[in-house]
Each structure stands twice: as C-alpha cells, then as structure tokens.
Amino acid sequence: MRHGRNLSVLALGLVMAGTTLADPKADTEALKLATSSGCMTCHSIESGKPGPNGMKPIGPAWQDVARQYKGKPGNVEFLTRVVLEGSNPYSSHWKDKVSGLSMPPNAVAITEGNARKLVSWILALN
Q1: How far apart (Å, rounded) are the C-alpha atoms in residues 84 and 104?
Q2: Which of 68, 111, 113, 116 has the most CB atoms within 10 Å of its CB?
Q3: pTM
Q4: Nearest to 101 by CA among 59, 54, 70, 46
Q5: Mean pLDDT of the chain
C-alpha cells in the first residue's frame, strides 16, 4: 500500500515537472515496470541527479538516454537488446559520466516485450 502511494506521488511529480509523456497512465505503468524490474536501482529519470553518497550515478539518467538515442534509426531495438543482454564495458559512451562500467543483462528480470515498452517510454521523455 505504501509502495503504491509513493509510486503515485512520484508519477504525479514527474508529470507536473514536465519530464514525461502527457499520459499519466503510461507514466505510472512505466514507473511500476521499471521499479519492479530493478531498473531504478541504477537509473534515475531526471538528468543531473547524483548517485549513492554523492558519487556519479551508477547508470545514465533516462532523460540523457532519450537525448542520446531519440530519432536514431533502430533505437528501440538496439536499446531493448542492451536491456536484455547488457552492454559492452569497453565501448561505453557513458564513460566518465556514470560510475557503472556497463549495463548488466536483465533478461531474467524483464521480458522482451516489457523491455521494449520501457525503452519506448524512455525515448519519449523530454
């Protein structure tokens, strides 16, 4: 009950801040999916948020991911593969921007369909 209320407050705050889509239902569903899949452990939605103990964040903020990939051909498929299979720590363009070395594979935590939904939502962020 408390978790659901906190998620609702977070979603409302994001919508009011203009950082997400205009569809609050999609925002709430995406945040619930991201939280239940463990994504929020490493990622934030908004750019510029510090990581644990004031360090660089573990993974890039989703606004930064959206800016990096929005409008690029094949972006949904590419990012869905990264979510499911992980990323190469030797070719990261997030180097020196985040404290994590690479994205771990998450196929055990999220289905391909849900990963694709989440990626599409991320790419729609402002």
Answers
A1: 8
A2: 116
A3: 0.77
A4: 59
A5: 84
